[in-house]
Amino acid sequence: MMDKIIENAWAELLAKATKKQGVSPRLITGDDIDLYIPQSRLLALAESNRAVFRLIYLSAQESARRNAYMIVRKLGMPSDYFWKFELWPRERAFTTLTKIVHRIFSTIMSEAKEGRLEVKELTIDPLHIRIDFDSCVECAGIKGLQIGICYYHAGTFAGIIAALVNQDNLDCFETDCYAAGGEHCSFVVGDKSDKAFVQKFDTYIHPPDIKIDLVDRLTKSLKKDSLRSLGNMVDVNYLRLLTANILRDNPRLFASTNSEVGHRFGRDVTKTIENFYGVEKWRAVQNYYHDLCQLNVDIKENESELQITVRGKALPTDSRTETISFLLGELQGLASGLTGKEMALKESYFKDDCLVITLVPQS
Amino acid sequence: MEPLALIIGSLLALRISFVYRKQLKATFAYFSAYLFILASFLILFPRLRTVISGDYYVPSILVVQVIDYVMLALFCMNLLRAVRLSGLNKNAWITFSITAAICLFLALYPPAVDGILEFSLYIIIYMAMRLLDAALVIALVPIIWLYVKYLKSQQRQSLTFTVIIFGIICSTVFDYLFATIVRIFSLAMIEDSFFYAIIPHTLFILGYFVIVVGLYAHLKDEQWGFAAVDIAMSGGLELAKDK
């Protein structure tokens, strides 16, 4: 199921890049959300469990590999285009790979405002490909970390290159990250048979615990600080890809974790949202979701329960509860923080393209 | 026509050898040499008949033929190294054995029936040529087998390279069949028939033409592929899902 969501998101991104509109009824110009939304979802989860980085890397690698392969077939690229890539001279390999990556995947990622992808260097024996990713959506606006945090894109690049050159034994790690003080993010895709590469990759894929000030990061987005040259928005399909990749391996387990993390996160940001907007508490929540998520939130409060109706482009297209688990947790956290009572989820369901949530005070 | 097709093929193979490294570079370089020697053989030897005296003419043909087959063998060896396959299974050995038996029978039986086997230089050279032809077909069997195994094992095969291999197999098999027909039936019987003139030449040209088309497509594959991608990315083509 998650694979289908990922496939649809890739297909929509490709359709946008090839200027074909109308693949999905939701696909209209301006399908953008603030990049804080995907960042907060992934980083809040990674803070609670550092294994999430490894999970998202592996999931992104596998799904990117399959979808990149399908995309190049759809575009009419011959299946033997990179036949025996390991036996190509360096110059030819670099020129041809750069051309294809730039024409297809850089276009898709620029169009989705994920970042600017560029192949910078290539060696054949052993295979090393250096990729620069400017204005990276995964880490823009985050600073002061000791390590790179763009695991989704590391996995995605490994998958894309593996699909193109038809090699299973490729991995990718980040050598430079904006969040760790770099000017842009840099990645190296390499061959697993190279011991030096494997050693660096092993260190990368087992990161230490991280602590990111997501409240400070939220303030930047609320203030509309300019975070990168591509702007502060990103295509909603990026959020779908990220969410589906997190849930891909074990949807139930990660939906439950997502909900818990979202709840904690919602509580953490309550004060910031309330103070920033300085309006009535539910109005502040409405503004927050409208400004950052392009979601219209309607809240009705009575003595016994809180009914929240959500509509907008950032809702999942498949109406599955797993994919909204973080949002459900976040709303519970916000409601708990704002009412001063611990709120629990009574029910949630989709009705006419809207998500209806009922929260009740926890007994 | 045949030498022209071979020379074009040789030049294309040489050009392709520069777009690869290591085993594939060697594969196409040896293939280029094989085609060039074959073309030179077809052009020069009929004209050299008057220059080279009778005693040396047949041995010199044999020497050139051996060199040419060595080039083909080196092509095959490097190809198998490039696709990283070795080792035949039981079915392959059975096919290989049956082919070897048939080829050796066709090479040795007609001369034995004709009663021409005797210890003379001419007969030794004559038999050596027949055995070389047979050996070529026998050697091609495991190579074809391994290449087919490679095609099945890979998610993505090179269509153009498969066309080249197909052309080589066609031209070699046509050559062998023609040689066999000529040697089974007496020359007088078939000299004026289609079997001696039009059909073999047409088949040779067809085989060489397939090789040339395969080589040309292999060389242009990258350019054509990128053009297709470029058009599709510009919105000029319907994507496969939309069709």
How widely separated are the two ends of chain B? 43 Å
Oligomeric grouping of the chains: heterodimer
How would you sum up the major sheet of chain A?
Answer: 4 strands, antiparallel
Query: Per DSSP, what share of the residues of chain B sits in E-state strands of 2 or more residues?
Result: under 5%
Task: Characterize the biggest β-sheet of chain B.
Answer: none
* Helix and strand sequence of chain A: HEHHHEEHEEHHEHHHEEHEE
CATH class of the largest domain in chain A: Alpha Beta
Q: Return the structural class of chain A.
A: alpha+beta
Share of helical residues of chain A: 40-55%
> Percentage of helical residues of chain B?
over 70%
Main interface: chain pair and counts: A-B, 31 and 34 residues
Rg from alpha-carbon coordinates of chain A: 21 Å
Overall geometry of chain B comes to globular
The total count of strands of chain B amounts to 0
